[in-house]
From TrEMBL:
It comes from Lacimicrobium alkaliphilum. The lineage of its organism: Bacteria, Pseudomonadati, Pseudomonadota, Gammaproteobacteria, Alteromonadales. This is AB hydrolase-1 domain-containing protein. InterPro entries: AB_hydrolase_1 (IPR000073), AB_hydrolase_fold (IPR029058). It comes from the Bacteria. The chain crosses the membrane at residues 6-29, 50-70.
């Protein structure tokens, strides 16, 4: 009996790792073919780069699972220590909560920024339902920092929620200093096919009427500095130009996964440099 239990304990992580490897390889080939069919430039990963890409995804899954357990709290907001720069409010994406920013927040706090994160609410609902949560978190962060404007840092779906915030609460633009989005499907993503669940299609499909009717930051608050970041090797939001907005500082990376945008040191340095320049 002990032998079989040991075998199960040892085999389970191996089986999970192999499953992730197969899924990532399949997605990589699918995305690569999409770029090729549409005559778009794709950054082809070497076997070594593909291995590093895979380990980055596994690392992200492990770290974010640990942060979910140990770094979450009831309201999703964390008090920073000794801030000497404007505050940053982090806005998570689909099927996540505020804890996913923990590693990036540590880097930004080391650079002297006060950081907060918000947990928007339960997943699998219309993202417009998250607008009130973000509005309240922004107001609280604004008050906690001597009523000084706050940087918004959003990952994936969080960037769309930020656009909805300014659409529903236009007065909030006076509480915002700048906006950064990481891998946000501003123009939808090809990952959402025609046979996906209707509510997912409504929000993330490239031909979604809701997305096409949602004003961009330049229309909602033209005076706000905005940076949109994408990865050509993002297997969730693609092609990369769908994560970029006109009238923003547009940044493209390669060899970085969708979750890796929250962990990669190159992305962290670019964000820190932007925030320092915007301060």
């Amino acid at each position: 009996m002990l032998f079989y239990l040991t075998l199960i304990v040892v085999s389970l992580p191996v089986a999970i790792a192999i499953s992730y490897a197969v899924a990532i390889l399949w997605l990589y080939i699918r995305v690569k073919h999409f770029y090729g069919r549409n005559y778009l430039r794709f950054y082809k990963l070497s076997p070594a780069q593909l291995w590093l890409f895979y380990t980055e995804v596994i690392r992200a899954v492990v770290l974010m699972s640990l942060w979910l357990v140990f770094k979450s709290n009831k309201n999703g907001l964390h008090k920073p220590s000794a801030p000497d720069k404007p505050a940053i409010l982090c806005v998570h994406g689909f099927h996540m909560n505020g804890s996913c920013f923990w590693g990036l927040r540590r880097r930004l706090e080391q650079a002297g920024f006060a950081t907060y994160s918000v947990s928007l609410g339960r997943p699998y609902v219309d993202p417009s339902k998250y607008v009130d949560s973000l509005h309240q978190a922004l107001a609280q962060t604004f008050m906690n920092n001597q009523q000084q404007p706050v940087h918004l840092l959003a990952h994936s779906m969080g960037g769309l929620v930020c656009r909805m915030l300014l659409q529903h609460y236009p007065e909030d633009k006076h509480r915002i200093k700048s906006i950064i989005t990481l891998g946000t499907p501003h123009h939808g993503t090809q990952a959402i096919g025609d046979f996906t669940l209707p509510w997912l299609k409504e929000m993330f499909h490239p031909h979604s009427p809701l997305l096409h009717q949602l004003p961009e930051f330049s229309q909602l608050a033209p005076e706000l500095p905005v940076m949109t970041i994408a990865s050509v090797n993002d297997l969730v939001v693609y092609p990369a130009h769908r994560a970029l907005l006109k009238n923003s500082t547009r940044v493209r990376f390669v060899t970085i996964s969708h979750m890796g945008l929250l962990l990669n040191s190159r992305v962290k340095r670019r964000i820190s440099r932007w925030l320092t320049q915007s301060t």
